[in-house]
Amino acid sequence: MQRLHHSFRQLRHASSLKIFALAAAFILVSASLVFYSRPASPSDIDLALSLPSSNDDIENKGTCYVDLDFLRSQGYNSSAKYARLEIAVRRTENFTGFSDTLPIRFPAYQKIRLDTVEQQAPLSPEICSPAVTIQAPLPVAPPNASHILFGVATTLNRLDDSLPAFAHWAGGTDARIYALVDSEVSWEIRRVQQRANELDIRLTIIQSDDDRLDQYFSLLRVMLKHRDASTRWSVLIDDDTFFPSMRNLVDRLATYDSTKPQYIGAVTEDLAQMFSWSYMAFGGAGVFLSIPLLEELNKVYDDCNSIKTTGDRRVARCIYTYTHTKLTWDRDLYQLDLRGDASGFYESGRPLPLSVHHWKSWFQADMVGLGQVAAICGDACQLHRWRLKDNWFLVNGFSMIKYTSPGNVDLMEKTWEDSRYRGGDGFAFSLGPFRPKDEGKVSFRLRNATRQAGSVRQVYIHDLGPENPPEVVEVVWKTASG
């Protein structure tokens, strides 16, 4: 009987707990309904609250979501202010050029939570509608660059790291790249070679025990050896030389007579550097040699190889000492000897460069991310600068910015460190005219760009420090429907 009485008490206690739990749940749900039934302003919206049960549901909505995992990967784990701008692009044969303005304003923010287990947060259809439609040229196939040989001396690791950038300009063009690397284990070389093949890059990896400067100069003979009847140009590059548009490069080279000795490149932008290294084609911008000049240099190869200096300077001294050919400075090639913040160069609104350099060493700029948008609006829209109605600027693939005072934005903002040249501004001869650096400029820099079917998503972030949530603007470029 005592045992029965004890069991009854346990049952009654358990029933009481269940009743209490049900009552508590009812009160909590009722309070939640009251709380969430109030209207919310855009700044109050917490996107994490309306997440569906499966991320597959979001994928089915195309691009209409926020990638929470990416923001967490940037070191943000609490919250962020998020805005989205969608631009539709209609490709047309009647394209006459991009305008310099867009009839839209900077998009409104909404708060997003990052302290959740969800990977993505959905957006309302209104936010995911195009704010503007622009025209762009019809898509074109990659150019035929089989008449150009490129040579680079580097390490296997740096070569591997450079392949995505090489793919932007060399992939699918039949341009051939010859890379001299230090002796490595064969399976590592096969891995890098396979990756290049998958990116449609015609890469040949050659092992060499020479030091780096001798490797650079020996590329002259490597390219001469591998030329064929169609070869017109040999180009010495660094592993961080980047060509935003191979079509523009092919078209520009066609304006030069490749049947004559040609030495084409760019000098440094810094007079102090020029006084140190001479007037020559600096290697990072690309050193372009016609085959007739390459044949002349081959005759004096041993004499020139005994000149122990940097690779590009050795080439210059060889040309100046043993041939009548002089440098042709193509003003759209850039060595970019700019230390520190080079944003003023990229945000200048000037024509798209043929080449850039030092973008992952002296300063940081995501050239691979920059190039993604070309799939939607063509090469010419890369770095194109649009002015919005509220004086914000979208520099496509690089930044979104607002100046303290717009002023004369046709002048390049001089954001980088001063030259050591003492005879005036050491950069004015190459990049001027300038305006002073805007210390109060608000700048969202590109952190990521991803290509999806018919669209490219760009994420620009303004970091406000560890105590404040970041400001995030996502620009989505989409092929216009209809």
List low-confidence stretches.
1-60
The number of distinct helices, counting runs of at least 4 residues, comes to 15
What characterizes the major β-sheet?
9 strands, mixed
Helix proportion: 25-40%
Number of domains: 2
Q: Could you state the oligomeric state of the chains shown?
A: single chain
InterPro entries: DUF604
Protein name: Glycosyltransferase family 31 protein
Organism: Aspergillus felis
Q: How would you describe this structure to a colleague?
A:
This protein is an alpha/beta fold. It folds into two domains: about 210 residues, no CATH class; about 180 residues, Spore Coat Polysaccharide Biosynthesis Protein SpsA, Chain A. About 30% of the residues lie in helices and about 20% in strands. The chain contains 15 helices and 20 strands. Strands 2, 3, 5, 13, 14, 15, 18, 19 and 20 form a nine-stranded mixed sheet that branches. α6 crosses α11. About 35% of the residues are buried. The N terminus is likely disordered.
